[in-house]
Amino acid sequence: MKNENVLYSVIEKEYPEVDYGEGMYIYDTKGKKYLDCAAGIAVVNIGHGVKEITDRMASQAQKVCFVYGGTFTSAPRRRLAEKIIAMAPKNMDKVFLCSGGSEAMESLIKIARQYQIEAGHDKKHKIISRWQSYHGNTIGTLAIGGRPSWREKYEEYFPKNISHISPCNCYRCPYGLKYGSCSIQCADELERVIKYEGADTVAAFIMEPITGTTSAAIVPPKEYMKKIKEICEKYQVLLCMDEVITGFGRTGKNFAVDHYDLQPDLIGFAKGLGSGYVPIGGVLVSKKIVDTIAKGSGSLTHSFTFSGNPMACAGAEAVLDYINDNNLVEQSDKMGRIFIEKLQRLNKYPVVGDIRGIGLLMGVEFVKDKETKEPLDFNFSAEIASYCFDKGIIITGGVQGSADGVNGDALQIAPPFIINEEEIDVIVKTVEEAIEFIMSRHGIKN
Ligand code: PLP
To answer: Are 430 and 391 in contact (CB under 8 A)?
Structure first.
């Protein structure tokens, strides 16, 4: 439907207009039905149109929609924080709330810096993050992000003192090594960069435990996380996780760090907490950090107008109750195992380089040559997504830069946790058809 006034990202594109959503499905105003294998964009983890959630939002709306979080607290805000802490790693003590993922990661950076100052490490101000990661679209979060094509126009505005290390990607090891016979050199890079920067100047290391939108579900080996944790502890660098995509069950555990028995210092989260019913995000803050700031200045030098908004908190609390009452984290684990097994069928195609992921966060990376892993010279996954969309299946294509930050593309597969086996079969079959169609369109032999 043509719209004259909305500034869409693709300005002249005519987008279908959504009418309503129900469970795994979205319906547009022309009556077309779409199977939502993207959960929007890894957001709608509980599925669309759950009445319990909207009822509880409506009853909160009838009481009060807004109070400023710096003036009042509210029962939904307190209960939500308590429920988040109950799901979080044991060392987490308090929750800062905001409206989305970029705000969460901006907040995390500021809390990390404030902690270092109040812990008496004034000089610790530098941040280290990783290439091929995504942390948001504000200037600050783009600067810690590692997708060159999204950074390049804005680099002039980036804060100083941010550096990046190579990603951990066993399919495309930055050191040309093989997992099993390497000594996790990609983690040693963190120690080297801390030393080059000066350990007394590095405040925090920030990473996605399992990657999302820039490199499609790369799962690091356990030894990587263990080494990273040891290095951070050795140099009093805060270990900070971006669980905006992975938090609240996406990978089959409450948080992705639970796969590694890891207790980071700070965790940013967003998407799944509100499941698309409300815009919400936040930061889990460990006891060490809370205590230091409480005993120091006693207040955060950070807040937003919508921090702890009662409506957002009521919606998110209802979502968490729904996730827990319906065992949806276990369901994400179970359906993820089934999905990734069924995806193995795609390995028969010469263009399928890697199938990876955990829980319901999966990626399929495409290549020109399976042996050399040379990337294709066009965006194969974007064409797949477009083919599937025409057939009524929403899947996220165009995850670009998965090979080296610039080249390489992958599909991101992140459906709602309520997906069933028949729906998985339909999706895999349609992706197979799409691969064959696009291969033949580009003259690629099977
Ligand atoms: N961090 C990660 C890992 C993300 O995947 C995203 C969004 O996709 C963000 C941060 C930014 O979140 P938002 O788009 O809600 O600002």
So the answer is: yes
Using CA atoms, how far residue 119 sits from 90, 353, 367, 376, in Å, is 22, 47, 48, 49
- Read off the tokens for 97: 């709330």
| pLDDT tens, position by position, 250-286 | 999 999 999 999 999 999 999 999 999 999 999 999 9
Task: Count other Cβ atoms within 10 Å, centred on residue 11.
Answer: 7
Task: Yes or no: say if 36 and 44 are a contact pair by the CB < 8 Å rule.
Answer: yes
Ligand 1 in reach of 213 Cβ (< 6 A): yes
Q: How far apart are CA 434 and CA 411, in angstroms?
A: 12
Angstrom distance (rounded) from CA 368 to CA 25: 33
Cα torsion 163, 166, 167, 168: sign: negative
Ligand 1 centre distance from Cα of residue 244 (Å): 6
**Using CA atoms, how far apart are residues 213 and 279, in angstroms rounded to an integer?**
19
Rounded to whole angstroms, what are the CA distances from 243 to 51, 102, 150, 260? Answer: 27, 11, 20, 14
Q: CB within 8 A of 94, min separation 6: which ones?
A: 81, 85, 284, 285, 290
Helix or strand (DSSP H, E) at 311: helix 310-325
Q: Name the token pair of 158.
A: 């980036």
CB-neighbour burial class of residue 366 (10 A; exposed 0-12, middle 13-18, buried 19+): buried
Q: Which atom of ligand 1 is nearest to the CA of 138?
A: 16
Q: How confident is the model at residue 2 (pLDDT cuts 50, 70, 90)?
A: low
Q: Quick one: pLDDT band at residue 75, thresholds 50, 70, 90?
A: very high
Q: Which atom of ligand 1 is nearest to the CA of 271?
A: 15
Q: At what angle do helices 75-87 and 310-325 cross, to 10 degrees?
A: 40
Question: Is residue 93 pLDDT above 70, yes or no?
Answer: yes
Examine the pLDDT at 4 and tell me if it is beyond 90.
Answer: no
**Tens digit of pLDDT for each residue in 386-429?**
999 999 999 999 888 888 888 999 999 999 999 999 999 999 99
Q: How far is the CA of 210 from the centre of ligand 1 (A)?
A: 13
The CB of 235 under 6 Å from ligand 1? The reply is: no
